[in-house]
Design a protein that fits this description.
mainly alpha; sodium; symport; Na+/solute symporter; about 75% helix; about 475 residues; Na/Glc_symporter_sf
């Protein structure tokens, strides 16, 4: 009962924070980019909290238990992608002061490619949001089991909580809540690791779990092929990411944007190290052969009940920190970049529609959800290379070539993601899609494409909100 009451108060805190932000006058920049006034530290902590979500926490821990220290590359590849983005892209993304990443891309790649990219992003992130709704539903069922039946009711309540906490206050509330959530996650993960490393007896001696630590970048269970796959699919998603770009655009100054990237990179590396060490230490407490996704729950059962309650809040923070960023960013893409509407009411309406679609997917079984999650591979293979080429190009890309690049990369990426020719060829198709999309986009550079295909963005620069 006490845990349930504390859980309700914990969730109410974020709803209250979002409500207080909603009482401010909200322009488009206020709602989508926190008024472009975020400090480097708050934006950076938001990057770290949004990136180290529940799936990464559970996934990295399970992979470390199974494959060893190379599980570090799950978030390590993301840190490398984010570092490259900070060096090569941040200033270019901010240059035109767009509302979203695709606004910057449209300047160089044209509207057709930007709209195709928006469709791919919405498809991919609807699936990601559906997975987060399912995770939040399980947390609500665990915390409120005495009051709330599990299944669809818990998932619907979790979806309602995420949507409400996001849409009331917008990006400013998201950034502030992410700072709180990053602190909860840091304290919870550090406490769990310390409990595994030291026996709290009279001598407070080191635990035998430390003997499981073996620092290696590759091994028999995780070799160069797996490393390359992580670098391509995970690192690529951090190199060009609408959610992370929103943090760069929300930063008050160029310096703050680079500080945000640095704090985010440090958070990813520190988080990866702590979670991997937890997974390695778990080998001394969890039975061999345990499914990777079950390692962290099984490990918590070996701890005192306090850790079970603490990690309920840790995982709630992890899910919310990713889900709210995913929802507000995808809604901005849908309204501004796809529908061409630049008002807060439309963004909220599209966010509700996306939330309903994600909720339906989460309740419809693994078939639809798996198809939607596959769209993330389409994003990395079809959108990331074209976006990178557009942002780095010295002159505009030809819109026809840019759109063809998005389609070709997405097609090859989907073949790889769906394993249509077997797992052995999946990575090859993904790499081929990435390379083909980049080369096609670069081959289509032309000096005349802006005059022939680009719309007058000045006519669309007013903010009716």
């Amino acid at each position: 009962m006490t845990t349930a009451i504390l859980f309700v108060l914990f969730c109410s805190l974020f709803l209250a924070l979002s409500y207080l932000e909603s009482r401010r006058a909200q322009t488009l920049d206020d709602f989508c980019l926190a008024g472009r006034s975020a400090s480097g530290w708050s934006a950076g902590l938001s990057i770290a909290a949004s990136s180290i979500g529940a799936s990464a926490t559970i996934g990295v821990c399970g992979l470390a238990f199974e494959a060893g220290f190379p599980a570090f590359w799950w978030l390590g590849a993301g840190a490398i992608g984010l570092a490259l983005s900070a060096i090569l892209l941040v200033d270019r993304i901010r240059a035109q002061r767009p509302v979203s990443l695709l606004g910057a891309i449209e300047e160089s790649a044209g509207r057709p490619a930007a709209k195709l990219a928006a469709i791919v992003i919405l498809a991919a992130w609807t699936g990601i949001l559906a997975a987060q709704f399912s995770a939040m539903g399980r947390l609500f069922a665990a915390a409120l089991g005495e009051w709330l039946p599990g299944g669809p009711a818990a998932t619907a309540l979790g979806a309602f909580f995420i949507t409400g906490a996001t849409l009331l206050g917008g990006q400013r509330a998201v950034l502030r809540s992410d700072v709180c959530q990053s602190a909860v996650m840091a304290v919870g993960l550090a406490a769990l690791l310390l409990s595994l490393l030291f026996d709290p007896g009279d001598t407070f001696s080191a635990s035998p779990a430390i003997e499981n630590f073996r620092f290696e970048l590759w091994n028999d269970a995780f070799g160069p092929n797996e490393w390359f796959e992580f670098m391509l699919l995970i690192g690529g998603s951090y190199l060009v990411c609408p959610m992370l770009s929103a943090r760069f655009l929300a930063a008050s100054t160029k310096r703050d944007a680079h500080v945000a990237a640095g704090v985010g990179i440090a958070g990813l590396l520190a988080g990866a190290l702590v979670i991997v060490l937890i997974g390695l230490a778990a080998r001394s407490f969890v039975a061999p052969g345990t499914e990777p996704d079950a390692v962290l729950p099984a490990l918590l059962e070996t701890r005192s009940p306090v850790f079970g309650a603490l990690f309920l809040f840790v995982m709630t923070s992890a899910v919310l920190s990713s889900a709210d960023s995913c929802l507000i960013t995808s809604a901005t893409v849908g309204a501004v970049d796809l529908a061409g509407r630049r008002d807060v009411r439309t963004i909220r309406g599209i966010a509700i529609a996306l939330a309903l679609a994600a909720l339906a997917a989460s309740l419809s079984g693994r078939g639809i959800l798996s198809l939607l999650l596959t769209a993330n591979a389409l994003y990395v293979c079809g959108v990331v290379p074209v976006a990178f080429a557009a942002l780095r190009a010295s002159r505009p890309l030809h819109p026809v070539f840019a759109a063809a690049a998005v389609l070709s990369g997405s097609l090859l990426g989907s073949i790889g993601a769906l394993d249509l020719f077997g797992r052995d060829y999946s990575l090859g198709f993904s790499a081929a899609g990435f390379a083909a999309a980049y080369l096609i986009a670069r081959l289509g550079r032309t000096r005349d494409s802006r005059a022939l295909f680009f719309t007058d963005r000045a006519a669309r620069s007013s903010d009716p909100s």
